[in-house]
Write a structure and sequence with these properties.
Elements (H helix, E strand, L loop, with lengths): L1 H9 L25 H66 L4 H6 L3 H16 L3 E5 L23 H4 L4 E7 L2 E11 L5 E10 L6 H34 L5 H17 L3 E6 L4 E4 L1 H7 L17 H9 L3 E8 L2 E9 L8 E8 L1 H26 L6 H12 L6 E6 L1 H4 L11 E9 L12 E3 L5 H8 L3 E3 L6 H17 L4 E9 L2 E10 L8 H38 L10 E8 L6 E9 L5 E11 L1 H19 L4 H22 L8 E9 L4 E7 L5 E3 L5 E2 L19 E4 L5 E5 L11 H12 L7 H12 L8 E8 L7 E6 L5 H16 L5 H18 L4 E7 L2 E8 L19 H8 L2 E6 L4 E8 L2
Antiparallel strand pairs: 1-4, 2-3, 3-4, 5-6, 5-9, 7-8, 8-9, 10-11, 10-15, 11-12, 13-14, 14-15, 16-25, 17-18, 18-19, 19-20, 20-23, 21-22, 21-24, 24-25, 26-27, 27-28, 28-30, 29-30
Helix pairs in contact: 2-6, 10-11, 10-15, 11-15, 15-16, 16-17, 18-19, 20-21, 21-22
């Protein structure tokens, strides 16, 4: 404040320094010749109120200081006295107790028959001689032998004695019946060091205190002297103050101090005070430095100080502003202005200036860093949303345009695009995977184009070194680009592309390709900070591309495995007109499968199954189950028995997987197995936890047969039930997996009703059309599970293609059968095959007559092959063997096997059927 006062005083004109503008002129200069003593008297009378008030304040302050010092001294004296009293009481009580304990004859007195008689007189004499309040002798149990009051002898000592029994000296401060005191307890030791008794001596605090009473008069006297000195000092300060104010009155002094107080409260860094007339009143050193003011700036108009027009106008306007940014030379200043005439202050304004140039630069850097972090965050969310290599490259390009670059190109190695492992040697050829930019008419190669890099180009250098390359100016590199592609290089320069960053796409030590960032519309070139941002952006995208590449490879392997395990075509047969569809889930390869298996007797088996889960394990499990179904079908088992064997197989697979700890157990599998006989039109079906089939009658009505569900495969211990249905010719049997009728947005019951509505169509619709209609209506937009669909329209073997005979159990009947067969073959126009057919049937009928019992039935069917069947009631199956030269029999089945294309045995509820198939001529 004093500095500002001096500055304000110094700013006055030299001729008027030392007196106020309101001060009267000296008496000698007055025209009336009035004596100056009168003016001085008036000046002193104006000065007295303010002077007395200042002096009184100083005097009151000094009195308060002296009183505080006196109080502090008294408190310190009391505390010191109390401490000294306690210490003195401890020292005296310990000394008396130790002296009495070590006095001659103490040990002998303690061991005498009556210690009190010996020690009580001595203790009282010692207490009176030493000035303590008591001396008490105790035994090791704390029982008093002596005490100033005889009635307390023989009673328990009040105090702590355990440490003293260990040979230690104890002092403790207690409040007894005689007031606050300090007592000491010391041990009485024998010559061998053992403690045979205790001595306790105590003295009250009041006997050793009294320092305060002696020193308090001295302290009060010092306080009186200090007050006297303060009074004298106040008088001297008042006289000096009157001399230094040059006769200024209280109003002038108050106004001046209010003015400087307003300035001091508004100051932050630089301070500028402008008067009401627009002249500079005050500018501190920081304001002079920030505004580059001349030395004689104070007192001059603000508009004449050489400031910028905007700065001068703001300072001279007097208007209030808050944190307004002002350009002063090469600096950015934050200005706050406030008027000074509030609350009766002088007219004008005060402005505070703060240099924010560096802060603004830091703010720009922080904003740029924030934008970079936002770009990285957005890219981490946007890149890698799918497991597709090309889509991930496109997402990288789109994430950087236009916030970071105007154009982005991504080139990948061909092996990466196909999901294969990139070659160890870095080649100069890659394929354009993605292009993105602010315009569509870019000069870069289109997607899918093979890019060959010339070694002199920046991109080739980056590919060779495996490190990013920054080119702030592309014009010097035009010659190298023209060597690679002159037309493209010229178009790049013509469209104003001036800077690039190329970064290798590398993940897990494997080079995947190159990502290049180009700028054209943004005038500033890429910088070092941009290079680090591009590296971070590409590094994250490279991991996503590599993950997509690995997924593509694994998905391709799984799809290849799945396709190799599924049927590659439908077998030839005449019982059913079959169409199918198989759609893998988008999430990955699943375990759904279907099959069409021709069976003996022109019959056909239809199979649809589903293994829970996706991936290689589900596909492999599906292949194992499909192979097992084929194997069990060769045994020509009924559907319920086949599912029982399949259930046992799945349980065994689970046990084996659990025992080996491979974690590949079958978590769930369902199956539907149906056998259709075109001769009898009977369809036998059984299912294991699979959705029921749909049956479409020739008139278009749809039903879901009441087929027992059965447990899923692998549970074990529960039987399966089969159902036989008589199907009219032209009926459609629809088998499917649950992915067709059920998804996250559709319940299974809703799916079945929707399927019913689609299938409700007369039988003139072909199975292929039925498949298309079903998929168009029920296929989810984003399938989460595989879909297998099998549609079979039933056909009937005409009656004129089937011949049957009942054969009595008599060897003579064999000839009749052969004759009947010969006539039937002649009717069918198969004379060339008649002899072989007669031979096969005669052998089979002869075996039945010889080894079986009950009725024997022969059936001959003309289908794609000529089928011969001999049924009997025996469950014994014949076996093919080689007959020795001396054997009379055993060659029948051997001949059958030689002449027939296939032959075998199947069991029925009443016996067995031996069948054979011959190719038609």
């Amino acid at each position: 404040m004093a500095r500002l006062m001096r500055r304000s005083t110094a700013s006055q004109p030299a001729g008027r320094r030392g007196r106020s503008r309101h001060e009267p002129a000296p008496a000698e200069s007055r025209p009336d010749g009035e004596h100056s003593g009168r003016a001085s008297s008036k000046g002193r009378s104006r000065l007295r109120p303010g002077t007395r008030s200042v002096a009184g304040q100083v005097f009151a302050l000094q009195v308060v200081v002296v009183l505080l010092l006196v109080v502090a001294a008294v408190v310190a004296l009391v505390l010191q006295s109390e401490h000294d009293s306690n210490q003195e009481a401890r020292n005296r009580s310990v000394a008396v107790a130790q002296t009495f304990a070590n006095s001659p004859g103490m040990v002998a007195a303690l061991r005498s028959p009556d210690p009190t008689a010996i020690l009580q007189p001595k203790a009282e004499a010692a207490r009176m001689g030493s000035g303590v309040d008591f001396i008490v002798v105790l035994n090791t149990d704390g029982i008093r032998y002596t005490h100033p009051k005889p009635d307390r002898i023989g009673k328990k000592f009040v105090g702590t004695i355990e440490p003293a029994l260990q040979g230690q000296v104890i002092t403790e401060r207690i409040v007894g019946t005689i007031g606050p005191l300090v007592q000491a307890t010391v041990p009485v030791k024998d010559t061998d060091g053992s403690v045979v008794g205790l001595v306790s001596a105590g003295i009250t605090i009041s006997k050793v205190s009294g320092v305060v009473n002696r020193q308090l008069p001295i302290l009060l006297g010092a306080a009186a002297v200090a007050l006297a000195l303060a009074t004298a000092g106040t008088a001297l300060a008042s006289r000096r103050l009157r001399r230094q104010t040059h006769g200024l009155g209280p109003a002038e002094m108050t106004r001046m101090y209010e003015h400087h107080d307003a300035v001091l409260h508004a100051v932050r860094e630089g301070v500028v005070i402008v008067g009401g007339d627009g002249r500079l009143v005050l500018a501190n050193d920081e304001a002079r430095r920030l505004l580059d003011l001349p030395r004689d700036a104070e007192g001059r108009p603000v508009t004449d100080l050489g400031l910028d027009h905007e700065a001068a106008g703001l300072l001279a306007s007097g208007r209030s502003v808050s944190d307004e940014v002002l350009l002063a030379g090469d600096r950015l200043l934050v200005v706050n202005t406030r008027p000074t005439d509030r609350n009766g202050g002088p007219p004008g304004s005060v402005a505070t200036l703060r240099d924010s140039t560096e802060l603004h630069a830091l703010s720009d850097k922080a904003e740029a860093a924030r934008r970079r972090l936002k770009l990285l965050y957005d890219a981490s969310v946007a890149v890698g949303t799918t497991l597709d290599v090309t889509r991930t490259a496109e997402e990288l390009a789109l994430a950087a345009v236009p916030r970071f670059a105007d154009f982005v190109t991504v080139d990948l190695v061909d092996e990466v695009l196909s999901g294969e492992e990139p070659p160890a040697e870095r080649g100069a050829q890659m394929r354009r995977a993605a292009v993105a930019g602010i315009r569509d008419d870019h000069p870069f190669y289109p997607v899918g184009r093979l890019v060959t890099l010339v070694p002199s180009t920046p991109r080739a250098r980056s590919l060779e070194s495996g490190r990013p390359v920054l080119e702030t100016d592309l014009r010097p590199a035009v010659a190298a680009w023209q060597e690679q592609d002159a037309e493209t290089a010229n178009r790049v320069i013509e469209q104003g592309i001036h800077s690039l960053i190329t970064v290798p796409l590398s993940a897990r030590g494997v080079l995947l390709g190159l990502a290049t960032f180009w700028r054209s519309e943004k005038p500033e070139p890429f910088e070092g900070d941009d290079l680090s941002l591009a590296e971070e952006l590409v590094a994250r995208a490279a991991l996503c591309i590599d993950n997509a590449r690995r997924y593509t490879r694994e998905h391709a392997m799984a799809v290849t495995l799945q396709h190799s395990l599924l049927p590659h075509g439908l077998p030839e047969q005449s019982a059913l007109d079959v169409a199918y569809r198989y759609l893998p889930a988008q999430a990955g390869v699943g375990g759904d499968w279907f099959d069409v298996v021709p069976l003996p007797g022109a019959r056909v088996a239809l199979v649809v199954g589903d293994v829970v889960g996706h991936g290689l394990h589900a596909a492999a499990t599906m292949g194992r189950l499909r192979t097992a179904v084929h194997n069990f079908s060769t045994l020509d088992l009924p559907p319920d028995e086949l599912l029982g064997h399949l259930d046992e197989l799945v349980s065994r697979i689970d046990q084996d997987e659990t025992a080996t700890g491979s974690g590949g157990a079958v978590t769930g599998a369902t199956c539907l197995y149906a056998i259709y006989d075109p001769v009898s039109r009977v369809c036998t079906m059984a299912r294991a936890g699979h959705p029921p089939p749909a049956l479409v009658h020739p008139d278009g009505t749809v039903e879901f047969p009441d087929l027992p569900a059965g447990p899923p495969l692998g549970l074990g211990g529960l039987p399966f039930s089969s159902v036989e249905l008589q199907l009219p010719e032209g009926s459609q049997l629809v088998l499917y997996t649950d992915g067709l009728i059920e998804d996250r947005e559709r319940d299974i019951d809703d799916g079945l009703e929707l399927l019913r509505g689609v299938l409700a169509h007369p039988s003139d619709r072909a199975p292929e059309d039925t498949c298309e209609a079903v998929l168009d209506a029920l296929l989810p937009a984003d399938p989460k599970d595989d879909i297998a669909l099998l549609v079979a329209r039933t056909q009937v073997l005409p009656a004129d293609r089937v011949a049957a005979w009942e054969v009595p159990s008599d060897p003579a009947a064999v000839g009749e059968v052969r004759a009947a067969v010969a006539r039937q073959m002649e009717q069918w126009g198969l004379d060339e095959a008649a002899f072989v057919t007669e031979l096969i049937l005669s052998e089979l009928v002869t075996n039945a007559i010889r080894y079986a019992t009950g009725p024997i039935r022969v059936r001959l069917m003309r289908d794609r092959t000529l089928i011969c069947e001999v049924s009997d009631t025996s469950s014994t199956s014949p076996h093919l063997r080689y007959a020795a030269n001396t054997d009379e029999g055993g060659r029948g089945l051997f001949l059958v096997a030689q002449f027939a294309e296939r032959w075998g045995t199947r069991y029925t509820a009443t016996g067995k059927v031996i069948w054979s198939e011959q190719p038609l001529p």
